[in-house]
Amino acid sequence: MSSKKHASTAPPSFASGSTIGILGGGQLARMLCMVAQRMGYRTLVWTGGQEAPAAAICDEFLDEPFDSLAALERFISLADVATVEFENIPAAALDAVEQSLPLRPNARAIRICANREAEKSFLRSQGIPCAPFWIISSAEELAAAMQELHGPGVLKTSAFGYDGKGQRKLDGSEDPIRIWHEFSAPRAILEGFICFERELSIMIARSANGDVRCFDPVENLHRHHILDLTIAPAQISDDLLDCMKEIATRIAVAFDYVGIMGVEFFLDPVNGIIVNEMAPRPHNSGHHTIDACYTSQFEQQLRAVCGLPLGSTKLLSPCVMLNLLGDMWPAENQQPDWQELLADGACCLHLYGKKRAVQRRKMGHATFLGEDALARVTSVKNQLLTKGQTL
Ligand code: AMP
How many A from CA of 298 to the centre of ligand 1? Predict the structure, then answer.
């Protein structure tokens, strides 16, 4: 297999006209492709065999699973630089890509973020505050951990967990043998339950030469464990904002990270800011940056991945991002009535072109700009939910 790794020690950069290879073809890849198109780059999307909203926008796509050798060879031969739009890429594919192309962020960072056990262990090893946790691979280990925790917790699968999937809340009184049997995951972590005041997140970008830029931290509100609203900027003290930026920077430096990363936090009334998890890619809570910042998170990803200077992260207007989930669609293949949303006049609608509106599936988002965005978003959201499929 040919290798395009550069011999020089200076980090390579890629001019417009180069091809960005993207592992994963969901909405995050789609929005990156849109920026790439605007900035004169070519895009190659490897879907992994999943439905791929990015396929309609990219220059070329490989609709093959990530274990296809033929797809790997083609990806490597066509792409100049590679990045990911989600972290659950098989390690073999990530390693093979990294051996042949600059992969930004690097495979180690992606692998750690994809596995809660590795992620939490990494945070602990760096001395970064996170919820107390125990690594569990048997009913006996769960019993011992529950005894030590002595209170409510959350049991989470080590792999393939997102949007609250693969999680179970425990009050501490359950029978560990029954819980472990029902949970049926080979490995998990038990986390102490955090009675957080707020959930917050930050998007951070680090360039190939080590420059770091953070977007303003935001506050996130969830519905059914899925992000519902992002409020930008978060209304918290400067000390807390600085603390989030400092922690995100420490993580990015420790990973020798190149690209965009989301870091999610809990604001704990006792311990202050603690990390929940990291996403080694653009993040749903950074979507407002498309309409409300000088540089969007997707342009920042492109800039970092291609070795270009990072852009300004300045927020031009306070805003609220509303996730548009499948339960707002009147029926699986019937579009909502966008009249009220569009009549707002300061709301930007983004739809991902997904064919089927399944309950809780992320179909699009809308960013409401202005000081009064929260009041306006509430009215539109309620109208969409009322006319949508049953909750
Ligand atoms: P996650 O997939 O780990 O981001 O978890 C999804 C959501 O579950 C989070 O956004 C929180 O609302 C909640 N959650 C996760 N872990 C904890 C925890 N240790 N304590 C309290 N709530 C949690």
Answer: 25
Distance 69 CA to ligand 1 centre (A): 37
Q: Which residue has the tokens 């396929």?
A: 55
Q: Pocket residues for ligand 1 (CB within 6 Å)?
A: 131, 154, 161-162, 164, 191, 193-194, 199, 222, 225, 264, 276-277
- Full set of structural domains in the chain with CATH: 19-103 (3.40.50.20), 132-192 (3.30.1490.20), 198-387 (3.30.470.20)
Compute the distance from residue 276 Cα to the ligand 1 centre, in Å. Answer: 7
Can the peptide bond before residue 318 be classed as cis, meaning omega within 30 degrees of 0? Answer: no
pTM above 0.90, yes or no: yes
Q: What pLDDT does 5 receive?
A: 57
Most ligand 1 atoms within 8 A of CB, residue of 123, 154, 275 to mutate: 154
DSSP state letters, 289-354 = HHHHBSS-HHHHHHHHHTTPPPPP--BSS-EEEEEEEGGGSSBTTB----HHHHHTSSEEEEE---
> Is the predicted pLDDT of residue 390 greater than 90, yes or no?
no
Residue ranges of alpha helices (H) inside the chain are 27-38, 69-78, 91-100, 107-113, 116-125, 139-149, 176-183, 238-254, 289-292, 297-305, 339-343, 373-387
Measured in angstroms, how far is the CA atom of residue 66 from the centroid of ligand 1?
Answer: 29
Q: How many angstroms is it from 225 CA to the middle of ligand 1?
A: 8
Q: Which of 171, 276, 278, 360 to mutate to test the pocket of ligand 1 (most atoms within 8 A of CB)?
A: 276
Helix residue ranges, H only, 127-268: 139-149, 176-183, 238-254
What's the mean pLDDT when you consider all of the chain? 95
| Alpha carbons 45 and 33: distance in angstroms, whole number | 9
